[in-house]
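Can anyone check this?
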Amino acid sequence: MNQEETRQMVPECRMNQEETKQMVPECRMNQEETKQMVPECRMNQEEIERMVPEILKREWKMFTNVSNEGGRAACQDDRKTFDIMRKSQFAVWNGEALLSYLNDLKQAELAGRNLMTEKYGYMMEDTAPEEFKRIRELLPAVTAEKAQLAAELTEIQVKWMERFREQYPGFKKRGRPLRKTDAVSGLDTSLETYARGELLTYSLETLNLLKRHFRQLDRQEMNLGTLVMEATVRQYGYQSVEDAQDHLK
């Protein structure tokens, strides 16, 4: 794979003022509604696999309609890479988290919100602090509970990727910075900034389900970062992460 493909995330797209003005406040559901949304029963693999294409379809529609201050970004016309990266992420989620996130997307559509636009808006707190001050009131308010959950899950994901790069150093120079403190202002965006921005668009239900899932992976001594990378390189035709790393040398 080439250097751009191994960055794991699509390039940053900033939104303009008109795009953010179209956003409406976050749609909230009560406890009974969320219980109906995410059943307690486990889904089988076939049911899970049917959900992912529906998630990708809804995400792509939002992503391709993000307004970028510098004009339309090339990544917004690259459906293949988008699908590979997003499918790799969702390949390691469990059914409950996927179902909850699919509902987040559906609720956002009903409310006229674009979660991808909001994601890049939240990211601007790190990438463009002065611009973020001008638009922050246009974004859905982030509660203390959501901010804490997003911070916890972001840190878990960054640490997983740190361990992955220690084990597979060939990927270190090919990927984006992991910590925002390591990002060169205006040139690159860290995994930490991307992850936090995206997590802030999720519902509390989805965040809590992911937290439970991440803890279970930790108990099983599994690294989600490695699992995501395994899923990614296989879609590019490699047999394993080791195989992909050999081709990076």
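Reply from J.R.: I decoded it. The chain is about 60% helix and 0% strand.
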